């Protein structure tokens, strides 16, 4: 099935509204999921609609919630997602943080009582498009152990980053701190195939090629002990400093069981000219140029932007099973 | 040779003063190097004294420089290390940033015209001891290529992080984004031994076990493409936002050749209570407790603190060649 982005957004928005989600929230969620799909991130795209709707129907996500932002310090915006979806809370941060950053030089948005952060590249990019550097950290239901341990305590705890470049599209980084996405292990369980021995550990903390054992165990952090340490850092920033649940306290984002996940997201944005002066964006463009002139180097974030530009022109292909599942919810 | 920390500090301070370094700077450098040594980080410890002194003698480091801090925005402290050592500039940030953080909720110290950042754990920890969360990013002379490339463009670009815990010592993370320290490859060239094939690439970008070929090539990033992406993020923060040289523009920290390295360091500090309220430090202690109760898990930063406590009581052992080299400089 082929659709324009506007058709897809309208369809998804209508499904959420039909399930009792506030129109403004339904629009925000629909935009985020369709843009994720357009950027080639189908794991954060339209396949999520059924699970999201199920959670709205049971009240695990409050479709009537309104996110509220409070400026608790000159440089801090505390955002309460109020057990609704994350996207309206992220929209609030994108709307209110930049003015604070221009005034203060740096500002921090701390989001709690939140849900799935989606494709974080899409959020940090919105700051870069306003001329600001942004870092974003999110926690997620626990799937990684602290280094040396066996029990899941951290999520795959992604870090995203975007920087404006004078005269060019922003650079955008978005990476989870697990070696591979958990979805890849899940896929192997469905196909009944083995996984490489450096993707995950079994419940005893040993490397395993058995995908079923891996799903019961923990995901391997990217770069071993260093990735596990960075996951701890993200946990502190995204949950400790926002007042969100820690990853090990958060319920699943995929089913309707348990209380709201109550996850957290932290965004730090900086005005590049605040310390380095007006020439900062020019120098950042020089750095990107130094990267790009090496054979074999792709600037981070450009592939996703290219796919989205393509999708804006020619629309997206939605798989039949996904479309059927979405339409059944309307 | 065995010395108390005070004896070692006094000796090192005197050597720098004898080479024309301002007394306050000599003290700051001596403290940093001796504490690094005490924390078991000899690569950033007393072995650096001869290279440091050589750089002072040739003017590559200005021993008469005075670091100057300017509050360019309510949340931003721009620190000019003035081509002197990094440590007095870091001391300035530690002295002035916390009051800004308490007022603003978050603040950013941007240090440029700087030098070797030393053991960054020791700097971020000083914020945690004042009840603040701190992140630190530094660039370094280029040794890693952007992912897919062959030419060094980023340093090993470390990230450090510290968080206070109510009723306990802080958690402290300090990691370079290369898979292993470059010093390990250098050591292999001296011993004439091979290196594992995942430590470094040759000039053609191929994995190599030949340490000599690796020194001419590039270091492998921790976690592959993800580590390389994070090194780019650190480059933007530590150089792009501070006005420092990029890593590929910086001269060596080990010899007296070329102009000053003019590296950068970025510190972001946050008041944990700014968004999450007064209970934040208590919850961070809970998280550390969840980690520590797993068999096999060591809390990051505790080993270094333990070694320093031990050294404060019983002194440190300084190898004869290091001591002889230091004394020859006096």
Automatic annotation (TrEMBL), chains A, B:
Supply the InterPro entries for this chain. Mal/L-sulf/L-lact_DH-like_ah, Mal/L-sulf/L-lact_DH-like_NADP, Mal/L-sulfo/L-lacto_DH-like_sf, Malate/L-lactate_DH-like
Keyword ATP-binding belongs to the record: no
Q: Which GO terms describe its molecular function?
A: oxidoreductase activity
What keywords appear on the UniProt entry? Oxidoreductase
For this protein, the record's Pfam families field holds: Ldh_2
Which family does the record assign? Answer: Belongs to the LDH2/MDH2 oxidoreductase family.
Checking PANTHER family in the record gives:
MALATE DEHYDROGENASE, OXIDOREDUCTASE-RELATED
- Protein's UniProt name: Ldh family oxidoreductase
Whose protein is this, by species?
Neorhizobium lilium
- Taxonomic lineage from the root: Bacteria, Pseudomonadati, Pseudomonadota, Alphaproteobacteria, Hyphomicrobiales
């Amino acid at each position: 099935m082929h659709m324009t982005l506007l058709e897809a957004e309208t369809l998804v928005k209508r499904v959420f509204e039909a399930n009792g989600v506030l129109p403004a929230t339904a629009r925000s969620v629909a935009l985020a999921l369709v843009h994720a799909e357009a950027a080639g991130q189908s794991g954060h795209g339209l396949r999520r609609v059924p699970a999201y709707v199920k959670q709205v129907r049971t009240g695990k996500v409050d479709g009537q919630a309104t996110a509220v932002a409070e400026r608790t310090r000159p440089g801090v915006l505390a955002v309460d997602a109020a057990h609704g979806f994350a996207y309206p809370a992220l929209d609030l941060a994108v709307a209110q943080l930049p003015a604070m950053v221009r005034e203060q030089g740096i500002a921090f948005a701390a989001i709690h009582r939140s849900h799935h952060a989606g494709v974080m590249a899409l959020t940090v990019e919105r700051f870069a498009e306003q001329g600001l550097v942004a870092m974003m950290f999110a926690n997620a239901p626990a799937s990684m152990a602290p280094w040396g341990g066996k029990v899941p305590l951290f999520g795959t705890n992604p870090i995203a980053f975007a920087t404006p470049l004078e005269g060019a599209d922003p650079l955008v980084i978005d990476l989870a701190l697990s070696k591979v996405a958990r979805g890849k292990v899940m896929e192997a369980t469905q196909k009944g195939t083995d996984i490489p021995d450096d993707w995950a550990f079994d419940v005893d903390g040993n490397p395993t090629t058995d995908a079923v054992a891996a799903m019961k165990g923990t995901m391997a952090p990217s770069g071993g002990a260093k990735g596990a340490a960075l996951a701890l850092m993200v946990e502190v920033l995204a949950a400790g400093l926002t007042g969100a649940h820690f990853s090990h306290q958060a319920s699943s984002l995929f089913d309707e069981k348990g209380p709201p996940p109550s996850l957290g997201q932290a965004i730090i944005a900086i005005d590049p000219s605040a310390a380095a002066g007006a020439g900062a964006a020019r120098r950042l463009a020089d750095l990107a140029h130094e990267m790009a002139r090496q054979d074999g180097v792709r600037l981070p974030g450009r592939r996703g932007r290219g796919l989205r530009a393509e999708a804006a022109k020619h629309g997206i292909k939605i798989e039949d099973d996904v479309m059927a599942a979405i339409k059944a919810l309307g």
